[in-house]
Amino acid sequence: MQNEIESDQKVNDPLSKKVNDFCMTICTVNGSGSATSNTTLLRALFHMGIPVSGKNIFPSNIKGLPTWFSIRVSDEGYLGRVAHDDIVVQMNPVTFEEDINYNIPGGVVFYADHINMQIDRDDIIVYPMPVKDLIEKAEVPRDLRDYMANMVYVGIVSQVLGIGMEYIENALLSQFKQKPSVAKSNFAVVKLAADWAQENLEKRDHYFIEPREPLSDYIMTDGNTAGALGAIYGGFQFCGWYPITPASSLAESLNTFAPKLRNDPETGKNNFAIVQAEDELAAIGMAVGAGWAGIRAMSSTSGPGISLMTEYMSLAYYAEIPLVLWDVQRVGPSTGLPTRTAQGDLNLTYFLGHGDTQQIIIIPSSVNECFEFGWKAFDIAEKFQTPVIILSDLDLGMNLWMTKRFVYPDKPMERGKILWEEDLDAFAETWGRYLDIDGDGVPYRTVMGNQHEKAPYFTRGTGHDEFGNYSEDPEDWRRVLDRIKQKFDTARDELPQPEYHFKEGAKIGLIGMGSTEPAILEAQDKLVDFGVLTDYLRVRALPFSSTVREFIAAHDRNYVLELNRDGQLHQLLIIEYCDMTDRLISLSYVDGLPMTANWIINSVNKKEKDYGTS
Amino acid sequence: MAPPNQDKTNAIGLTRSDYRGERSTLCPGCGHNTISAQIIRACYEMSIPPSKIVKFSGIGCSSKSPTYFLSQSFGFNGLHGRMPSLALGAAFGDISMKVLGVSGDGDTASIGLGQFKHLIRRNLPMVYIVENNGVYGLTKGQFSATAEKGLALKHQGENPFLPIDIAKEALIGNASFVARSFAGDPQQVRELLKAALSHRGTSVLDIISPCVSFNNREDTLHSYQWGRQHEAPLHDISYVPTRKAIILDEFIEGETKEVTFHDGSVVVLKKLEKEYDPRDKWQAMKILEEAEQNHWLVTGLIYIDPDQPNLYDYLDLTERPLNRIPSKELRPSAESLEGINKSMR
Q1: Closest CA to A466 of A478, A455, A480
Q2: Containing domain of residue B159, as a range?
Q3: Rounded Cα gap, residues B126 and B123, in angstroms
Q4: pTM higher than 0.95 for the full model?
Q5: Which residues on B lie below 8 Å from A409 (Cβ)?
Q6: Would the CB atoms of B79 and A270 count as touching at under 8 Å?
Q7: For residue B164, is it within any domain?
Q8: A419-469: per-residue pLDDT in tens?
């Protein structure tokens, strides 16, 4: 199941009580309906005030292949992935033996007792679950039995660990808001199983759940939903998209929320359009057209779709067309691992397009930030009249996260330098579509439908001068392309700036981006125990902020942490800061799974040892 | 109809030259230039303000032509075969605009075939002109997918493949408007353009437009000579603007077929000796198949369904131009976000 990068199995002291600090993996068969059960557990823990994360490790398959769902609880708020399991809930005979190897000594296995498997380990605690008997007893209709079987483990696990039934019931009610009767019938099975466990199981393990103060500043959702909501509050007006894992749910969330939130006040009709395109070539073409026409345009896709979109993105760069493109990254090259996570599209997207192309990239690290960047991206795109790519990933986009409540945009929309009829009347200077009047590299634009006689111009991907006229003149080409580069220098310090986490006296830097944040923050804390003090900089946008240079220069060694083989962020930092390459050290890998804190700790410690400092 | 005097103005007070574009850089005598001239004339005669027209094209000789007409209109020269998606996205900016796309056979019948078919399937209101010459002109004379079997070109040898028929592809794709014409018949091109500009859906105009440089041997399908000798017009059509709301006198009752467009304008079809109803799809298929068997060039309005719902009908879209909606109307309230936060607890 989980390719071990590191050996982080730790020996549990069986006598010590472990409260709100463990990882539990539920092993089921894809398509069996276990998502509802797993989410119920996750939400119940969240309602109990315990920091919790859930990661779905699933196959590229609709039904039949193994799937795993890992729940981590941590009073300290460490919510990154861990590569071992304290508790395994086993419902899948196919992976039974292998999964149990991930149990740490002193760990726990709950298993459906109709699975006839030998458990050879004597260092773990085993609880059989009479799933079939209980389902029979619950008088569940035959066609719902497999599905309801998953509610049995919810009941037994909750009873043994101490998750109160009232939290489970609430979690079910919040999942089945529209269908309370379904919540009720699910809960009946949970309760039956919990009662059975109370009467028949003696608690022998040392894992406990205890309620905490409510996490009232937090909500629970996934990054794709958050991104879609961000777009809706950012005033998106057009989305062209094509289905692809793991990005599909972003556009689908637009379809869910936009019709309720975005109606014309007078007519009640939609003030946006969402079109499922025939492919990514068309999806991006539509977004380019819409962005050009002056409406807030977007698309969402993943690696293979980005490859297909390259040519139009190159045109959008050169013709200076605002649009927002979400790349919810999966593992490449090629079809790769469609249902696994990575940060491997950084180089591709930064230079997306043939010729001298450079795109603006913004990189959220949390679900909350997916919302924030979802609306901000439109302001950036229209301000600089260029595409903005938001680099998310599968871990952030598709997994449920506990995250800070969405914060309403703190400033009005920024529509950039757009001229309507009255603006052109008042415009004293000569206007040309690509004429830089303010000296910041950003020209003024008019859009289709503007009735002013000076407004129309012809947009092309071929060589053009400041007035949009076709030109093969060498001087025109140089001037226009150099001026476009200037926009990016202007943008550098106006994009989301890096975030910092300092430790007093640190001489070592950690540099990361995106969804690896929870693992890096945990590693940063735990490295202190090894005597390694680090400061952490999270890159939130490219081109890099000028403050990145100061951070690198202030640290003897900067470890660049990322989920790709070649260390792409490291490569880009080396290009940008070629005078400081000896201070930049790449630590990167990709195997499809989210980064773990232990991998960072081990890797940094090993390097530090090589440098002879610890 | 006499050609209008240059000093005259149309119903909105504009002269013909208000509809002109840059000087063409295509080869002298290129069929595409004739088509550009008819676009200018049709728009002038229909009194459409140039500011209410938006032009799109792909890549190739044909796709250069939008700069040669309607300088006072916005335009966008996109990517090879991918003008339909560009036009579709842009159309949402202001759905009151007339959308005019110019493509070629290399652009539409190869890389663009997918986008062409999907544009038709969505029935976006736009005029989609294919300037069809059976050859790649701008890369100097390779076969396109519409080149007839057996065509011999310098440097290329003989084309062994059967052609893609753009009108047939459109018809099979459930296009709501399919017409074919010939650049050497400017009057028919113009009348079909007017009909297409009034149609409330995707209007496909496959216009055989001879390439004077690379595919104009006397015996080839896309040449002037072949066209003049083999052209078999289905019917003459005249476009009558709504404001006048009259059917021309010379059309005798019983010999006309009327097709009413959604904007209220009417296309009147003059029947020749052959009974032809462009609303009969089966008949349209048959006539195209017959034409292919007999090596005819069928021109005219081959098929029309003025009632087919278009893309805007499906989307429950406001009629206000989206690109003029004030920003504050695009951002839902803070209260609504609080509701969402609450629902995610």
Answers
A1: A480
A2: 16-315
A3: 8
A4: no
A5: 331
A6: no
A7: yes
A8: 999 999 998 889 999 999 999 999 999 999 999 999 999 999 999 999 999
